[in-house]
Predict the 3D structure of the following.
Amino acid sequence: MNPIIYDFKRSFLRLSVLIFLVVFAAVGVGIGYLVYHFSVGNLPASSYYNMNFVGVSFGFPNGTVKVHGYVFDKRGCPLVATIEMVSNSGKVVSITQSNSSGFFTIQGNNASYIIVKYSTYEENATITTIIYNVSDFYNYYEYNGEGLAIITGVKNCVGKLILASTFNQGELNLTFYNQGLKAIGSCIINYSGYVTINSIKIKPGTQFISLGSNSSIGFMTEYTPVPHIEYAINQGVISSSSLFQIFFPIIMIYLAYALYSKLIDSGAIEFIISRPLTRASFYLTRLTSGLLTGVTTGIIFSLVVGGTFSILIHYFPSFVVIMLIIELISILSFYYILSFMLSNFIKSATATLGISIALFFIIRIVEGILPIFLPTNVSNIVGYYANPTSICSVATYLSTHLTLAGAPFNLGISIVAQLAWLIGLSLLGYLKFRRMDL
Amino acid sequence: MNLMIRVENLVKFYGHFQALKGESFTVNDGEIVGFVGLNGAGKTTTIKIATGVLYPTSGDVIIDGYSITKDKKKASENVGWVPELPNYEQDVKALDYFVYIAGYYKIPTNEARSLGKRLFEEVGLAGRENDKLKNYSQGMKKRFALAVSLISNPKNFLFDEVLNGLDPEGIQFFRNLALRLKKEGKAVLFSSHILSEVESLADRVVFLHKGKIVKEEKMEDLRKLVSTNALRVILNSPSEEALKACKDFGEPILNNGVIIIQNFKGDLEGVVRALKPFGILDIGYVRQDLESLFFQIIGGI
């Protein structure tokens, strides 16, 4: 068996790791559930549907109502759905299906609302000029009485702009604003049709968008590069993971103690080192297997938290989960490597364990209080560059701001700083270990 | 004869303390070399350097032509080590740990498992494969170390004070093993702080004292060194007549049924012929105590 796999299995399947993973995951699920009920849970179930529709209605003097509409999923892609036009008394007066492009036209007499059915979803909307039922997966949403604009399915700054307007042609001016409300770009959309679908490229760093025509500038409305619901979930996930982030690094420190420090202290390392392997390969094996345990644990925990929301709202918040994974990997790796490195300088394994845990608390406390005493720019340098878990800070920033444009740090430098800490400490430990008398 | 283990001018400092002062010796194939010295003489340090556990300050150990300092992987593959006090990770099952170690020899899991079962049986650990190593006795730990050492079927073995703390069965096992390995043409370095412990095994003895080799001698020459010019004869029926027959060979005295012939002259065959009618149970030169010789060599007394 490959020694890395064996050591990984032995460290990951360690009772302490499994128990704490299960306990923290259970706590995470509980907190996530609680947060869901206080925030996202208040939204109607249709907020999580993977079905949306928009339409524009026209009434005729003889009581006939005609609706042009579009049915789409959370990414803005067309859906073939059944549309029923229903009278006040609940009688279906007309029925149709959206075509393969998602569009439909339906008309009937004395209709008061429409019902759209797709898969297990069923949603209705009162017939007004603009008819819509849109779930919370949008990136941008603006309704001004005469029209509705939705941007959804944004990936790599490109998304779909779905417009429903009482005018069947016109020009729409979109202006993009950054966090400081400074216009950073604009684009003009010429549309012809009551309901139109356009591909749109969003300027990176956009936090607000205003919609206007040639003659007017509209209100600025918040834009989120990830689905709006994910932004709402984020607070819940931060709460869910807080306990894990505070305490699981201690398990990683313990893991370094069990896998490495104790081995050196007890002399059990001698028997392994006498096998056909070099010190470098042994060092790397133990380092890698512990890191793999940290990475796997972080991923499992994040997936459990994400899975909780997935069950509750039928949507897996991938962006939030990815950010959480990055944060956890950064923290867990650093404290494992820190303890691993110290084991080479401190002969006593228990002393290494104690000092590592003490350092963990000191670093976390300093991280927490420094921003209070330092000017913002200095605090940013410390937090995003000097911080041994700088990538965690970057991920935290990203999960709340959703964009790196306008970030008070350079991502490249933060990554280099994080790698420098991890590689530097590993290397320092190895340099001591390679010539050490065991 | 090939030089299987070659210790070359080893020097080892622990801080300011010099544990080894430039020792050199060889262990040939098909040979058991006793490595004798007082506690702290540097035997274990030498062996740990030979296994690659410790780095020498200078010098090297060449195993089958591979330098332990420059080509450790190859050198380690060709040497087995049974330490005095084997120390393992405690919370693992013996066979699992064996499989893990076999991973360093690039042996796949299934193959390692079946090899492990076979070697456990060979070293007398059959049925204890799934015990945790922390539950093994000292003797079992040594047998486990041996089983692991046999993974690559090496040509060279380092036994460090291996008989210490063993029961008679364990002592017999390792003695027989050393002799078997020798018979198979393997090189065995057998360290001990008791000279008599290696007497019946070693072909050659290297004496180490305070990090320096003070003597290197073939066992047969050592035996001559401890022999005296007195012959000891144990007879089935010692009598005045037998004593009389011995007078032709020296100055015999009868003491507690044992005849000692002082100032022995003549040959052993002649004595045997003369005393045959009295029933010879044992005959040999009276020898000096081996341990006294050891202390003489190292200058301890």
The longest strand of chain A covers residues 183-192.
